[in-house]
């Protein structure tokens, strides 16, 4: 993230801040404010179990794409080191930093206490080389989540892993539970992340025509520009097409695929050859089941889908949307004599019905209570393409104006994209409800990350029920690093 953020932690910690909008007033509720601890107590369940884990970030060497590459990971390969717990548990995760750089852990999608959110210089100081920090917080909601660094370009390495919060009373029936983490890969293939960013800044970004919608294997639902970076490889669970992972099941079994886009610059369209996908969850929260042929995930998004397995061996393909980069691949197989699908397969389901936001209807148990917003606010996503600078309302973080709220409010936030590229916008510490268009139920999913298409807008309702200072930013790693971020700032 851009320099200068150290001022934010100091400001939030002592209760002072830059002047908020006149309509709100007050001082910032910092991560150490008593209101943060009070909210955590409300989440705590009597007799809750404590799940202990150690997350160690360290250099590692792994075979990816048929070559040995040096990267950073939380285990033996990218995606390793995941955590499973049950809803209501207290997670006690000790982060050990074995890297030659400071670091943090952000728990993506969790409505946790603010001082555990893992944003350096906003909610905590960075964890130095050889140091450790223990994150301790309640897991209030079941679902598919993940964790990753929140510093610089480190997410565009192998530093990510799933956090799966199980519900013992989950109404979704399945036989096998599988996590598939999708990622765009650079390490060991020539350019470093820093060199990529320097090229973008020197060339004004968006320099390759292959990123224009429709120039890839199929037309793009994202429109405009789909990415800034050409990647030599795309992986599923840290494995390229040469070492692809196999999901094994019996015919007729129901496999729950938890799809997580951990990429830095790439949206993925995911399909399973010979099968339809029943979507049951978006960003961890349940939706009324909808059957499609493929799903499209922006960076940071997650979908849970159910696949009823046919007999044979089938490709699982994650195509970089609107790019000509090679796809990420895995295999679904019932074993026996079926030959594995050829690498490079492009199942017909990729061109079938794609999940759209209008298809997503929040289930009654997770829908926000029906009431009008207390306030509305609009922000614009902006970019200076010539200099590769991104921002909110034309200003780059940390100088972008915060979005001020008071605890107990409902804020309707309109996000307007004034650029020619889509932006997956992620809000920390909250799950918002999308404001549907037309029908009162269509497009009302509870999510924490939403794709805002070029020259368009989305509206989301945010229940201000988790005090603190929370990042709102584009989950394109290079856009975040060059300023497309602000803070949802609680005021007292």
Give structural notes:
The protein is mainly beta. It has three domains: 31-166, Cupredoxins -  blue copper proteins (Immunoglobulin-like), CATH 2.60.40.420; 176-355, Sandwich (Immunoglobulin-like), CATH 2.60.40.420; 375-490, Cupredoxins -  blue copper proteins (Immunoglobulin-like, Sandwich), CATH 2.60.40.420. It is 7% helix and 37% strand. The chain contains four helices and 30 strands. The chain has helices at 6-13, 34-43, 193-203, 477-481, and strands at 50-64, 67-73, 83-86, 90-97, 106-108, 132-138, 143-148, 161-166, 176-185, 233-236, 246-248, 254-261, 268-272, 277-282, 285-292, 295-297, 302-308, 313-320, 328-333, 375-384, 389-392, 403-405, 410-417, 423-427, 432-434, 446-447, 449-452, 457-463, 469-474, 485-490. The strands form six sheets. A six-stranded mixed sheet has the order 10-9-12-17-14-15, with no helix packed on it. A six-stranded mixed sheet has the order 21-20-23-28-25-26, with no helix packed on it. Strand 14 and strand 15 (285-292) form a beta hairpin. The longest helix has 11 residues, at 193-203. The protein is globular and about 70 Å long. The two termini are 27 Å apart. The model is unreliable at 1-8, 10-22 and 207-219 (pLDDT under 50).
Structural class by sheet pairing and helices = mainly beta
The CATH topology assignment of the largest domain is Immunoglobulin-like
Determine the CATH superfamily of the largest domain: Cupredoxins -  blue copper proteins
User: How far is it from the N-terminal to the C-terminal residue, by CA?
Assistant: 27 Å
| CATH architecture type of the largest domain | Sandwich
> What is the C-alpha radius of gyration, as a whole number of Å?
21 Å
Mean pLDDT: 91
Q: In DSSP terms, counting alpha (H) and pi (I) runs of 4 or more, how many helices? A: 4
β-sheet strand percentage: 35-45%
Total of domains: 3
Estimate the global geometry from the Cα principal axes: globular
Query: Biggest β-sheet: count, sense, barrel?
Result: 6 strands, mixed
- Count all strands and give the number: 30
Please mark out the parts with pLDDT under 50 across 5 or more consecutive residues, or reply none: 1-8, 10-22, 207-219
Question: Approximately how much helix is present in the residues?
Answer: under 10%
| CATH C-level class of the largest domain | Mainly Beta
């Amino acid at each position: 993230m851009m320099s200068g953020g150290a001022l934010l932690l100091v400001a939030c910690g002592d209760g002072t801040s830059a002047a908020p909008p006149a309509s709100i007033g007050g001082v910032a509720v910092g991560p150490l404010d008593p209101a943060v601890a009070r909210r955590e107590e409300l989440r705590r369940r009597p007799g809750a179990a404590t799940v202990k884990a150690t997350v160690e970030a360290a250099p590692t060497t792994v075979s990816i794409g048929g070559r040995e590459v040096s990267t950073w990971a939380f285990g033996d390969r990218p995606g390793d080191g995941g955590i499973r717990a049950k809803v209501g548990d207290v997670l006690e995760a000790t982060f050990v930093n074995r890297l030659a750089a400071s670091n943090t852990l952000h728990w993506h999608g969790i409505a946790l206490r603010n001082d555990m959110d893992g944003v350096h210089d906003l909610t905590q100081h960075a964890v130095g080389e050889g140091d450790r920090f223990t994150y301790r917080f309640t897991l209030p909601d079941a679902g598919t989540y993940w964790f990753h660094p929140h510093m610089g370009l480190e997410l565009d390495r192998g530093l990510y892993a799933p956090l799966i919060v199980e519900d013992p009373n989950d109404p979704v029936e399945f036989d096998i539970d599988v996590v598939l983490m999708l990622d765009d890969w650079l390490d060991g293939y020539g350019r470093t992340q820093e060199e990529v960013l320097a090229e973008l800044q020197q060339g004004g970004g968006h320099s390759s025509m292959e990123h224009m919608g429709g120039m890839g294997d199929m037309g793009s639902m994202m429109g405009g520009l789909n990415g800034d970076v050409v990647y030599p490889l795309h992986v599923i669970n840290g494995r390229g097409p040469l070492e692809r992972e196999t999901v094994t099941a019996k015919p007729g079994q129901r496999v729950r695929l938890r799809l997580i886009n951990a990429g830095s610059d790439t949206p993925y369209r995911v399909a399973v050859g010979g099968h339809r996908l029943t979507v049951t969850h978006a960003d961890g929260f349940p939706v009324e089941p909808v059957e499609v042929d493929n799903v499209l995930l922006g960076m940071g998004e997650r979908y849970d889908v159910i696949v009823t397995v046919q007999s044979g061996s089938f490709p699982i393909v994650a195509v970089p949307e609107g790019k000509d980069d090679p796809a990420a691949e895995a295999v679904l197989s019932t074993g026996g004599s079926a030959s594995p699908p050829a690498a490079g397969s492009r199942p017909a389901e990729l061109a079938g019905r794609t999940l759209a936001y209008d298809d997503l209807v929040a289930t009654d148990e997770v829908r926000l209570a029906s009431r009008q917003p207390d306030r509305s606010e609009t922000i614009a996503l902006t970019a200076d393409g010539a200099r590769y600078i991104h921002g909110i309302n034309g200003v780059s973080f940390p100088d972008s104006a915060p979005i001020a709220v008071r605890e107990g409010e409902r804020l309707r936030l309109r996000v307007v994209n004034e650029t020619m590229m889509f932006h997956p916008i992620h809000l920390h510490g909250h799950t918002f409800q999308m404001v549907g268009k037309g029908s009162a139920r269509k497009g009302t999913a509870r999510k924490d990350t939403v794709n805002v298409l070029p020259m368009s807008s989305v509206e989301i309702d945010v229940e201000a029920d988790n005090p603190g200072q929370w990042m709102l930013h584009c989950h394109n790693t290079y856009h975040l690093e060059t300023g497309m971020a602000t803070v949802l700032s609680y005021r007292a």
